[in-house]
Amino acid sequence: MIDLGISKMALIGAVALIVIGPEKLPKVARTVGALLGKAQRYVADVKAEVSRSMELDELKKMRETVEGAARDVENSIQTQASDFEKSWSDATDAALEPQAPQYKHPNKNWRLKQGAMPQWYKARAGVRTRAQSGAARVARFRPPRVR
């Protein structure tokens, strides 16, 4: 750009004062200032547009990379799903063959085991042997009346 120092600005101002005259110089200075402001706004708009277009290009590239990665993940999932389906079908075909009997827990009849506990142990351990309603339980443990 043009290198304007203080000395060059003073020289331009002196020449403008001589050529234009002192009456018209303020009006010309305002016009020149307005034109410079418009030029600066135009340059700023162009810079903003260029930066927006560069960001848009970057976003498009990023979108393409993300879409490519998504396609790769989708393809890998589909291949793994097909492998899983293949192994599942093999396993279900093998399941149609005769199997060993299922495991049966030896303590299945827990009622017999509960009945084998002696009454004195139940009373000592606090195991309830008879069902009582809430009102009957309160009445049972209520202190006796004193007359």
Automatic annotation (TrEMBL):
<dbReference type="InterPro" id="IPR003369">
    <property type="entry name" value="TatA/B/E"/>
</dbReference>
<keyword id="KW-1003">Cell membrane</keyword>
<comment type="subunit">
    <text>The Tat system comprises two distinct complexes: a TatABC complex, containing multiple copies of TatA, TatB and TatC subunits, and a separate TatA complex, containing only TatA subunits. Substrates initially bind to the TatABC complex, which probably triggers association of the separate TatA complex to form the active translocon.</text>
</comment>
<keyword id="KW-1133">Transmembrane helix</keyword>
<dbReference type="Pfam" id="PF02416">
    <property type="entry name" value="TatA_B_E"/>
</dbReference>
<keyword id="KW-0813">Transport</keyword>
<keyword id="KW-0653">Protein transport</keyword>
<keyword id="KW-0472">Membrane</keyword>
<protein>
    <recommendedName>
        <fullName>Sec-independent protein translocase protein TatB</fullName>
    </recommendedName>
</protein>
<keyword id="KW-0811">Translocation</keyword>
<keyword id="KW-0997">Cell inner membrane</keyword>
<feature type="region of interest" description="Disordered">
    <location>
        <begin position="80"/>
        <end position="109"/>
    </location>
</feature>
<comment type="similarity">
    <text>Belongs to the TatB family.</text>
</comment>
<dbReference type="InterPro" id="IPR018448">
    <property type="entry name" value="TatB"/>
</dbReference>
<comment type="function">
    <text>Part of the twin-arginine translocation (Tat) system that transports large folded proteins containing a characteristic twin-arginine motif in their signal peptide across membranes. Together with TatC, TatB is part of a receptor directly interacting with Tat signal peptides. TatB may form an oligomeric binding site that transiently accommodates folded Tat precursor proteins before their translocation.</text>
</comment>
<keyword id="KW-0812">Transmembrane</keyword>
